[in-house]
Amino acid sequence: MAVIIIVVIVAVVVGVFLATYHPSKVITITYYDDLSPTEASVFQNDILPEFEKTHPNIHVDYIDANANDIASDVEALVQADAH
Question: Which residues lie across from 63 on neighbouring strands?
Fold first, then answer.
């Protein structure tokens, strides 16, 4: 689980860094999380819109998935990137 959190944090930092140095390009970040329904609602309805308003060149694709699916998806992405 800690690896997933680190991967997500790194992805967000890289996205913000790239968007800062290429503000005319729209950057899309895919964010996976295993939030409760209440947390997911706050994240989608309050946090994401405020983040995207503050950073108009960053779009966040939020994917609500359970921890096992997140780990599998991240592993598949790493494997695909390695080839």
Answer: 32
- The pTM (predicted TM-score) of the whole model is 0.58
Chain-centre distance for alpha carbon 23: 18
Positive or negative torsion for Cα 28, 73, 3, 62: positive
- Helix 2-21 and helix 67-82, axial crossing angle in degrees, nearest 10: 60
- Residues 29-63 have pLDDT tens digits of 988 888 889 998 999 999 999 999 998 899 999 98
- Which amino acid, one-letter code, is at 18? L
CA angle 10, 6, 17 (to 5 degrees): 10
The candidate with the shortest Cα–Cα distance to 6, out of 82, 81, 80, 70, is 70
Q: Say which DSSP state 83 is in.
A: -
